[in-house]
Amino acid sequence: MRKSIPVAFFSLMSTLLIFGTVVMGGSELVLFSRYFAQERYDTLDEVVNVAQRTASYLVQEASLPEGEELEALSTKLEIIGESAEAYLFFTDCDGNVMLASVPEKLTGDTVEAEVLEKAGKAKENYHLFDTLGGVLAEKSYISVREMRSEDGACTGYLFLCSSGERLAEFRREFFSNFFLSACLMLLLASVLTKVMMHKLTDPLQKVTDAAQRFGGGDLSVRVEGVDGEGEVADLARTFNKMADNIQSNDNSRGQFMGNIAHELRTPMTTIKGFIDGMLDGTIPPEETKHYLGIVSQETGRLARLVQNMLDITKLEAGEVPIHAQTYDLWKTVTDVVLSDEQRIEDGKIDIQGLGGDPLLIYADPDFVHQVVYNIVDNAIKFTPAGGTISFAAERRGNMVEVRIENTGAGIAPEALPFVFERFYKEDRSRGLHARGAGLGLNICKVLVNLSGGQIRVESQQGEWCRFVFTLPTVAPNPGGMKRLPDESGRPGAVEDPASMKPVD
Questions:
Q1: Which candidate, 95, 73, 83, places its Cα nearest to that of 47?
Q2: What is the mean pLDDT of residues 74-96?
Q3: Burial of residue 150 (number of CB atoms within 10 Å: 0-12, 13-18, 19+)
């Protein structure tokens, strides 16, 4: 069965707490038991030292006193034992009990030889927790000392015993207190865990709900109410950013499809209208050639539009191979201007800054030709009669900066950030321009990025417009590219030129 995060976390925490509590309780019990036993043995050893006089007396007499003297001796032994909450007894060298301070504590009268042997080998006192083979009525802490005469011969053994019932009572009290403390600790930990998990899982639940709604098609949903620092807040912000990008891409896709439909419909409507006019006789035969020329122009425009869209698709998919080489930039610029010489003369446009010393770049000649052609084509369309198109290029480090400027109406400030978008036209009311569909500058951006450079536009409305792009002089590192600041002064996103997607 699938466990939710709170249940799984609580189960884990409970298991760890219980395990830790058991380990801690066991270790404390062992520690306290050892301490308790050591304390008992130390006390018994002290009493053994005190009882040595009595033991010496018995050794010297070699026989037990009788009558009142025996009673007095028993009383003395009992007092000595009570001082340590213990009792004592003496045995001869064979382990036979000779005298006991509390005879009722003994249920036997002979100590095993094994115990006597170990006591004889001990440096001082021999300790054990036992019943001495049934001599004692209950398990007790026992300190044994071998008694010797002046010549070193064994004369008997002194046993000092303390009941183990105190340890059992201590253990019962320990377990009772420990169990109560552990229950309180687990209860408090459970409450704190629940509160903590609520704070942790509530934002996660918000992200989950938003993701489910987003996956269901509601692209407007965002994660709300998750602020601050931490991984969950970062996750929420990342989700919102992702949702913004996806929604923006979805909107762009819809707008792109709408633009395609519009751009294709316009020339096709024109073509169909003229052909229908010629077929039904609305257009007289003597004007057929003229309108067929218009149809031919519209067909060519339609073909260029489709080709541009195919080029963009191939560029974004990385299907266009790059054949970069080192060559003179001015050769490409000159070739483009010469190819448009007739249009330039017809528009009475003055060309400035063309030519100069060779300026080597490392790029695909076809890419650069397309970029320069699109920009010059744009400049010719919007430069008034008597206007000027000027060219300039200079090396800046390992890049060459190219500037193509034309006089004229320029571009409005609010339109500058959108110039390189697909199908963008500053003046929407003009419809489809006679020689473009708003894809040329977008292709320029893609090709410049693929070449390892950047492109931007500058303009003074009513006076001039300038396109600036850079090209490398050596093989560039695409991962290190950064787009030039846009017109607002903010750096643009770094793009992977092969996919036109943001990269780190």
A1: 83
A2: 75
A3: exposed
